[in-house]
Amino acid sequence: MSVFDCVIRGGTVVTAADTVKADVGIRGGKIISVAEKLDDGKNIIDASGLYVMPGGIDSHVHLAQPAFGGPAMADGFESGTRSAIAGGNTTLIPFALQPRGASLRQSVIDYHKEADGQSFCDYGFHLIITDPNPTVLGQELPALVADGYTSFKVFMTYDDLVLNDRQLLEVFDCARGCGALVMVHCEGYDAIKFMTDKLERAGKIAPYYHATSRPSSVEREATHRAISHAELTDVPIMVVHVSGREPMEQIRWAQQRGLKIYGETCPQYIALTADDLKGLNMDETGGKYVCSPPPRDEANWEAIWEGIRSGVFQTFSSDHCPFYFEGPQGKKNPKARTSFRWVPNGIPGVETRLQILYSKGVVEGRISINEFVALTSTNHAKLYGLYPQKGSIAPGFDADIVLWDPNRKETICQELMHHGADYTPYEGITVTGWPSLTMLRGKVVAEDGRITGEKTDGAFLKRSLSPYAVPQGKPAWDR
Ligand code: DUC
Ligand code: ZN
Ligand code: ZN
Are 468 and 236 within 8 A, CB to CB? Predict the structure, then answer.
């Protein structure tokens, strides 16, 4: 009888720490052995010329979400997770959003109904807190954290989602009490509203003005405010989807003061610019790129690289938040044509995250391949309570593996995508490096763009408390 169900033979194993020529032996969905030569496998997968890396973990995706009050999303769990595995990912952490006035527990139950039996990869849930009333803070949140929903997101903008400063402080304080990690969307609500009204009155309604309405200063101010609240309450926070220099410098400043402030950035901030929102001469095609914070410019790409290389950012996520371009639910629906204010906010990207970072980062010599693995897999597992089950290649870890072809050159296009959206914002970008096989807990679920897994393969992940969410000292009122 064979010792291993499967041996991945002849590849180069890459983790956040090491790069080594080795075989990987798998049994019962787990990695059992990583050694120079392993023979005894029922199945042998030839990985010569390929990197053997931990499957991508994308800790920032939106699936089946009631689109911030607007049109329906282009991806539920089935198409979103299919797209994820085709792109070399094995775990997603989407959001369970609490509509205002609703029970948080009920919202989580509803998202489970969306995901159960509909997921090609493993998944957990972050919670989005929109209504931090005493029942939510005193009862529902602590109970949900104990049940494995160990992180939540709060918003500093959007009519349906925004929390005021007092509410932010209350949520931070509650997170500290239950040991949860808070993700913060840092853009200032009033400044955006003010700018939007001014632009609309001046007739500036094209999608491009979405970017004008929320400039870097608006993101910088909110980032600083969130950091100050985190310091006051003594709670670590993750600033998500950082778009450029100004917010990056705020996070770096906080980190240099010894505060546990973490940073996330995304492909759109190294591959798209605000000029993309101009579309074909300021028409509605620019709506394809409407997301928040908006893409900036190439000088800001450089600042993002500075933040990646110097460790200001721990995670590189897609912020996959897909909408259609065409049709009544699309980004150019009749209402959206009356003002950028109504263009659904978000872009697809879960399937192209790894390729964009690998190509622009590793191939172009900006980061090492080990940093690539840390930014796309290991650090997500560590920050969000999935380590040491997920995020590395070593005995005891789930056999979640991507075989990566470092030489495959592709031009990203909609025809290659498996998502529900009818476009990709990265159309026409040529990348070097592409996933050739994705394995979830020992099962090959995607191979060369072909889906071999099933929508029942994915399992819910009850996550541990993040070791990175441990408070540092005392809150300001207790020092
Ligand atoms: N924030 C997100 O995190 N995703 C999409 C839109 C947004 O504002
Ligand atoms: Zn956000
Ligand atoms: Zn998001």
Answer: yes
